[in-house]
Records
---
Amino acid sequence: MGKYFLILLCWVLVPGIGINTSLATTPNDEQSPNIIIVFTDDQGYHDLGCFGNELIKTPNIDKLADEGTRFTNFHVSQPVCSASRASLLTGCYSNRIGIHGALFPHHDHGLNPEETTIAEILKEQGYATGMVGKWHLGHHKQFLPPQHGFDFYYGIPYSNDMWPEQNGRNDYPPLPLIRNNETEELLRGDQSKVTTRYTEEALNFIKEHRKDPFFLYVAHTMPHVPLFVSEKYDGTSKQGMYGDVIQEIDWSVGEIVKMLEKYKIKDNTWIIYTTDNGPWLNYGNHAGSAYPLREGKMTVWEGGVRVPCVMSWPGKIEAGRIDSANFMTIDLLPTITDLVGGKMPQHKIDGRNVAPIIFEGKDPDPEYPYAFYYRQNELQAVRSGRWKLYLPHRSRTMAGQEMGYDGKGGRYKNFQTGTELYDLKNDLGERFDLAEEQPEIVEKLMVIVEDYRNRLGDNLTEREGTENRPVGRLEN
């Protein structure tokens, strides 16, 4: 630790760690902008036309990219459902707030009511707040969206494969479709109308609140397996059922944009389209693609944590831009808060205000460090600028394995990583480990590693953090 401490004293890159830095003033109009986040489930980096896919047609999302900016270096904090969603809504690494992996129907915990969400911040600023889709941050009433700042909620509380007939789990309850705090119906074998119903509810919310500033969070159930698609998009894609599902999501985006245009509020609406993690590769033809990235969901390789991101806001976000600045979902809360003049959470968060990246195409701190956790608080990698350092941990791959087919998953192969260093500027596919060739970079990044281990803990080194907060627990 002695040499790491000396490096810490002389290395200028570290001061940004853990500090909520307001980097610039975002657009400041008299009228507060509407904000829409579309968050899909298990969609690959390569699964949009504007990200290079020629088999899946996504004209509506591609148009948003033409009218706005495509961010090619955008990340989630963890490559799995609940943890990723916790980070998006709170601006925190999910392990800071006790959310790990994916929550299941038997779990009795969820997002702590003491945490502050984007919805709560915007509600304090007079916004109408609505959510449709998959929540996955606790299915008991005290954890549901209406208790976390959302005026309206319609969707499922966890993943769409968590029901008895799908998993053969008799201890799983039927999958509930919830309106606000109450179960409206039970979803069984057919989910083919889910994307359409989410879209209809989203459109109704926009119509109802078109004269107010509103925040709408659309968290699609798809393309998480099992895949379902409506008749209108069944068989329309050259990439089979998976492509059909993405094309229906693209239709949904198009319907939302049409509604904004109908009420002449598109020019005052910031739309963010992204996903919770990379593709679930072992499902083969029912999974997406992370090309040209390595691996996918449930790994911290780039294919698991780098996700497609498109943002559009006419006149505010540059049209037709392709931006490679590195930032993350945790940065959206502080950026949105600054945009609307809101009050930052009283507790510590991990995101930074990235307004200069989004609205100006400038990154004042391109070496800003980010951490990637997985499993039960395992710090598995850190990133600063072009460099990404992996720490020894158990990972998984489908390389050389038999892929799943038509909804049945293949079996991953586990392997042990070492201390590995990759130059993502010149090696996006993470093929060439440079740890031995660049020991000074490894040492610099280990300073960041030790800082995160001390503050947020690391089960791989049996380190308890000093800044972790408790998860919400079910009240008896």
---
Amino acid sequence: MSKSVSLSYFYFKAKIGKLFANIISGFVRNKEKRHRLREKLDPLNPQRCVNYLAQHYTAVSPIAESLLASDRTYVWVCWLQGEEQAPQMIRNCLQSVRYYKPEGSEVILITAENYRHYADLPEHIVSKWKAGIITNTHFSDLIRIFLLARHGGYWVDATCLLTSPFPPYFTDSPLFLFRSHGEFAYTLIQSCLIHCEKNHYVMRMWCAAMAAYWEREDRLINYFTLHLMFKALLQKDKHFADEYAKIPAISDEPMHVLLKPMVQGTAYSEELMQRAKESSFMQKLSYKFPAEILNDQSSLAYVLSQPLVVSACENK
């Protein structure tokens, strides 16, 4: 059986298995038990995905070290459509990054027009992105790890609103990623904020594994494939795991003080904003809301979608 046929058959079986899991679990009335059963039966549940990735894509060599001589420190943000096309909330977040960037660093906005100047992405990844096989969201996933492997520095998602400078535990670690919590704890890591030194082994291995994945695959096995590949490498590569063990275990939970109230249409208040500032140096936001929330001028989502004076977000 050819490679393409075997992969198609694998995904076909997974699709049928997921349908079976949904039907069987539908007979369970208790919501929590129903979801647990559905995940257990799903042939592509997170742990099975990790096992699949570990089996097929972790026996790789890290991508080559960068020979760039520059010692400049970069803060990377990505909005592929460009700043002028970004929603106001995204521009607010970008403004906050420029305001709080580490002294002496340079903020680079990565777009569809300039990414090739900074990231050495394999051509098969670029081709699949241009063909629509790789989404913009996942392309951003890949850009961040290839940028950090080559240049190092800081990755900040375009939906991250900074309210104070980066803390020492973030800037002083050779590699730092936050730990995921709550319903997405199974992803282990949060990729919206990353700091790493140029040529870090973990980042170079992560790039190599994702490049190997897209050389063979034509679809994401899971929305969080980037994170699950990280877990697969932890499972199979001792050096990778040893480097990860050096990272302080800090939860991303304090970064989500504003997100849920925004989604729920909660009214803006100075008390809520102050609680967010005291919880973390960054808040993860979203720009996607129903019209009824964004049109409500009292809502938190509406206020944060207006032009923002970033200095007003400072921790007092």
